[in-house]
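Quick review question:
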């Protein structure tokens, strides 16, 4: 009896799909061999969200500037998968490039921050002063490239980069689970400061 009930439903679905074909968006979520959704972002998604070319993403990954933390490339045809924090690092590197910092200096700053200060790039307070990159916490400011005092500072608040990235994820990938969660977080933040 249950089989008889399934047949009309399947036939109904088939007739609906043949009646009016609707264009389907390119799937953004990928599944593994078991059908489970693979978390993270592909290089193509990172390209759209961060606003840098696929070629830059590939170059920066090969140079070790931002490594895909979820799935590194493993030979021809494999796909890198980037975490949210990896995208934050891409966005920070892009903003630093926009401020005129060369790629070699960005790599040195990221390396010093990760290896000498034990920090995460995605949660750091980075200050740009001319051609120097500084790291700031509550009570100190250190040069990530060299020792010296900064005369003119450009502050790059990573929290602002995260908010901008969140908005881009929600806008460009609205049906992804992370976008739904981020939109709830964004709405919660905007509602928390309101009066009513």
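Suggested answer, residue by residue:
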């Amino acid at each position: 009896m249950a089989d008889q009930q399934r047949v009309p439903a399947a036939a109904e679905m088939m007739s609906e799909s043949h009646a009016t074909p609707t264009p389907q968006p390119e799937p953004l979520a990928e599944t593994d061999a078991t059908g489970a959704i693979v978390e993270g972002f592909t290089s193509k998604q990172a390209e759209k969200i961060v606003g840098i070319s696929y070629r830059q993403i590939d170059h920066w990954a090969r140079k070790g500037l931002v490594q895909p933390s979820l799935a590194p490339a493993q030979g021809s045809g494999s796909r890198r998968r980037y975490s949210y924090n990896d995208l934050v690092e891409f966005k920070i590197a892009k903003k630093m490039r926009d401020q005129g910092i060369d790629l070699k200096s960005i790599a040195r700053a990221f390396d010093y921050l990760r290896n000498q200060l034990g920090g995460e790039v995605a949660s750091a307070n980075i200050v740009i002063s001319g051609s120097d990159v500084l790291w700031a916490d509550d009570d100190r400011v250190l040069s990530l490239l060299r020792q010296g005092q900064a005369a003119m500072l450009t502050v790059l608040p990573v929290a602002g980069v995260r908010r901008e990235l969140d908005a881009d994820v929600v806008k460009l990938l609205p049906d992804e689970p992370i976008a739904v969660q981020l939109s709830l977080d964004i709405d919660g933040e905007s509602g928390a400061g309101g009066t009513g």
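Why it works: The beta strands are 30-31, 37-38, 125-129, 132-136, 141-143, 154-156. The two ends are 54 Å apart (CA to CA).
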